[in-house]
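Supplementary Methods S3. Complex input for the adenosine-5'-diphosphate-bound model.
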Amino acid sequence: MYPTGELIVVDRPAAQAWIGLSRLVVTDFRSYARAELALDGRPVVLTGENGAGKTNLLEAISLLSAGRGIRGVPYAEIARDCGAGGWAVAATLEMAQGPVRIGTGIEPGTEPAARSRSVRIDGEPAGPSALATLLRTVWLTPAMDRLFVDGASERRHFFDRLVMGFDPAHGARVNAYDRALRERNRLLADNIFDDAWLAGLETQMAEHGVAIAAARVETLARLRGALEAAETDVFPRAGLVLDGTLEAALEGEAAVDLEDGFRRTLVEMRGRDAAAGRALAGPHRTDLAVRHMAQDREARSCSTGEQKALLIGIVLANARLLAARGTPPLLLLDEIAAHLDGKRRAALFDEIVALGLQAFMTGADPSLFETLGARAQNFRVARGTIENAD
Ligand SMILES: Nc1ncnc2c1ncn2[C@@H]1O[C@H](COP(=O)(O)OP(=O)(O)O)[C@@H](O)[C@H]1O
Ligand SMILES: [Mg+2]
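Predicted complex, serialized as structure tokens:
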């Protein structure tokens, strides 16, 4: 139905090898009937008035990775109001081994509650988790300004996305764990104390749960190292702790013992979980505690600007690690200049350029990006259109 990714081969000297998007086409995607961007690997600045469609474009890019994207809404909601009812995002991803075409979307007529979308890689159908091995995408949005203040689940999702950068299978494991968890919740809620059925689900939860916790602990160690090694103190150093029983236990116990221990805990907790209407223990409850080290203060009681700076420091540490492994992330930085003073803005831009990251940055005011100059590609967004503004 939609042209999800015809092959466009971009001629580029080998010396300019980079990893990122060279082409992006969105069709019937929110405010866009069709829009196309040609990209050359520099960071991308998107400016335009409120409601112009900047975040919509970041959302389109976020759907090139596994999951529901930066807004996390049902897929049918994304289709353009006056369009045919479906939507598509097609992109060409430049990789070290050559270009890869990615296409994703839903067909017109997809039911509103549909939980899946189609994904094609080089024209072949693929599962969303295949995207995780191709692209590492990390985003910061205005909604995340409250990341340290609101509940644990957003912080856990944020951290799990960082884990996926190192371990692409992590997302699929979290989904498998969640499926088993939901089914167990449903059985307990319906008073179906079928021992074999519950035990099967609990075994799955224990297997996936320990693997999830182990991947988190590994990423945590990497991030701590990168945060400590950071050369600049423009972004305050964050102290990270995973507040979860499995994660804490992994420091002392072998994974096999832990798996059996967690499985037995789940069996013992059936009654209490049934009464509570949810599972009270497990890696789905883990929180990421963040501390402003220089101030010796919990992130949630720092100023809004300091919280943003802490978050950017974590994202940059993660990007440095991934870039060093040859898999630099795409950064989606929505309204990034808000709450950042000039010094921090300049440091952020310098680091993005130094790491060769394709960061997509949005803002209403073009002057906030002036110091980037020709180091970035500039686009002007207005109601359903995107124009090159270099
Ligand atoms: N499904 C949709 N169909 C058409 N327009 C949409 C749809 N969803 C959102 N929009 C429009 O997109 C605009 C918001 O775009 P957004 O990217 O959030 O703006 P901003 O440039 O401020 O980030 C709103 O004006 C909204 O009406
Ligand atoms: Mg916006």
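Confidence is low (pLDDT under 50) at residues 1-16. The CA atoms of residues 269 and 280 lie 8 Å apart.
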